[in-house]
């Protein structure tokens, strides 16, 4: 096979049209040729560079590196593709990949050095961007994955591992359908069809399946991955967990519903005693009541006025709790005295219904560090609730010193509490859906306030009942005074 050596003109044209800097230098480091790419890369024209030492391009700390390479060339060896830096005319450092080869005489003697330098600035920038993007993807809170046009997973970040329970090793190389419930596989068919046509999908809300089989609500965005020529080769997926969002939205909706019900209930509860007060006041003022009925009217006005005052006080207490403005006046209190005082307040109501109200307390005092007014309010709430929901029978309140803590137990033989209602009875504005509860009314605040005040004192409150018609028991424990 015959070959034809290229002419010097052809070789010169190749050198001049190269995107790499091509330089020749003598063995003692003097520049002998300098192409246009070298001019662009380093800023020196050929006139400025020819005849000058190559060391003008070499940073001082890399001179030893250059000397070592020249020694290898002198021995006839080539030095290939080592990454280093050179200094441009304006003083900027240029990252380069350098190849150095010996220039030989016809007899094989080395008389010069050929240097080819490739500018790595763009590649280094791309690498930095790639590392930066990789760090972003790795630290993202959203699950970020990529797949090919057949749905085979190519990348899988840490958030995807946390969200779906599969490691990258378990997902890469496997179908994305692994996390798609079978009844939603048609969604993936539609997504792939759209991606193959070069179209993106934004904020598509759906459901995916974790490794443990549980379902998770997500918002999904999918974008096509394209080559420089525009060919679609895959898709990137960003999945955001919206289950918490959904739960918060549901809770907000429930809170609004409860608020509306509370306002309606408050309006009703205020209107009933207020109508009684206004009605009897007008009758008294206009002289429409016989003398023997006036005393009863005054009692009715007083009772309903007290009820209004209690309703307002409960609402104000809730407001203080919500805004964190509850203030306790802590002193050493005799719980026996507080229990007796709360019992005295509710006894007339119990007597009116024929309820046997019993107090069981030790002869000696039981002291706790507490706000006496608030704790008496707690005991009164429990006792008044017991009277309200006990048509007949008996109610007892017992005080004990139990293992270094005070224990107050209120037991009644009333309508009881359904098992499904027990977990909710200490929530604000909550009332059991039973005929007895609907008939007695109220704002559903008493037990919520009792729980909050007891917990502020470092105590606990619990409720128990064997069911409807079988009474209820409430137990309050408080730390004793030291």
Give an overview in words.
With 482 residues, the chain is α+β, with helices and mostly antiparallel strands. It has 4 domains: 8-120, Beta-Lactamase (2-Layer Sandwich); 140-241, Beta-Lactamase (2-Layer Sandwich), CATH 3.30.450; 246-322, Signal transduction histidine kinase, dimerisation/phosphotransfer (DHp) domain (Helix Hairpins, Orthogonal Bundle); 331-479, Heat Shock Protein 90 (2-Layer Sandwich), CATH 3.30.565. 42% of the residues lie in helices and 26% in strands. It contains 14 helices and 17 strands. It has helices spanning 8-17, 36-42, 46-49, 63-74, 121-139, 158-164, 168-171, 185-196, 243-286, 291-322, 335-352, 372-388, 435-440, 446-456; strands at 21-26, 31-34, 79-87, 93-104, 110-119, 143-148, 153-156, 201-209, 215-226, 232-241, 331-334, 356-360, 367-370, 394-402, 405-412, 460-464, 472-479. The strands form 4 sheets. Strands 2-1-5-4-3 form a 5-stranded antiparallel β-sheet. A 5-stranded antiparallel β-sheet has the order 7-6-10-9-8. It has a 5-stranded mixed β-sheet with strand order 12-14-15-17-16. A hairpin with a 7-residue loop joins β16 (460-464) and β17 (472-479). α9 (243-286) runs antiparallel to α10, α11 packs parallel to α12 (372-388) and α12 runs antiparallel to α14. The radius of gyration is 44 Å and the shape is elongated. The termini are far apart. Mean pLDDT is 84; it is low at 434-440.
